[in-house]
Amino acid sequence: MVPNLGEVGEVMHLAKSGRLIVKLSAAGQNIRAGEILVDSSGRRVGKVSELIGPVGAPYASVIPMTDRTARLVGEKVFSAGQAKPKERRRK
What pTM does this model have? Predict the structure, then answer.
């Protein structure tokens, strides 16, 4: 299990768009777009793109950060915090 990370939900399936659909748990209902999700080993799963569904039982649409998306179905995911914004190069 990943220390210091809160479980946010479970990967339900892979959408036709290639995004992962995560059913959020009660603890995961306060995540925001841009957060990085990791698996129980601490490997990056993806980045939350948007929250969808009813307010009482939301889902997250997640842009995968791995090629092995099929193995993630049914796995618990954890929040690793907000993604850092990209630095802009100055000319």
Answer: 0.81
